[in-house]
Amino acid sequence: MADYFTHFSCLLDVGTPVKAARALALFQKLHAADQDADDPEVAGFDIVHQDAPEGSALWIHDDDHGDVEATIRFVLRLAEVLDLTGLWGFQYGLTCSRPRLDAFGGGAHVIDLGARKSIGWTSTQEWLAAALNGEDVYA
Predict the structure, then answer these.
(1) How does DSSP assign 17-78, residue by residue?
(2) What Å distances lie between residue 16 and 8, 11, 53, 130, CA to CA?
């Protein structure tokens, strides 16, 4: 039997050490509430305050099996709570413990923090399929 994995590691600079501490406190509060939840809000990733206490960056990374969508939802929530602006994005990798035809790839997401929405994403699996079908993937 094969195990499938999603991995990512990225930084989100929230602007100030105070905002970073608030973000970490929110994550910890939600994580504690998720312990008994059927649909956890912050599962599939962890957050560390980089260069604490004076740093303003958060290291967001998977904790074994990454959840890209949960990460995006949390970052959008942080954008609202902390009034973040600008563009932010991250890449992820898909892998498997055994060779499988559809098990490897990756992608990336771009978020407009000020607009509080995803503005673009790509998947290497979908890109490759489109390119092999003769679609213009380079435009």
Answers:
(1) HHHHHHHHHHHHHHHHHHTT-SS-SSTT-EEEETTTTT--EEEEE-SSS--HHHHHHHHHHH
(2) 24, 14, 10, 42
51 backbone dihedrals φ, ψ, rounded to 5°:
55, 35
Counting every residue written for the chain, the total comes to: 139
Helix, strand and coil percent figures for the chain, each rounded to 5? 30, 30, 40
Give 3's DSSP letter.
-
Question: Measured between alpha carbons, how far is 72 from 56 in angstroms, rounded to an integer?
Answer: 19
User: d(Cα 123, Cα 64) in Å, to the nearest integer?
Assistant: 21
Over the stretch 106-135, which tens digit does the pLDDT of each residue have?
A: 999 999 999 999 999 999 999 999 999 999
The string of pLDDT tens digits covering residues 12-22 is 999 999 999 99
In contact, 103 and 96? CB cutoff 8 Å: yes
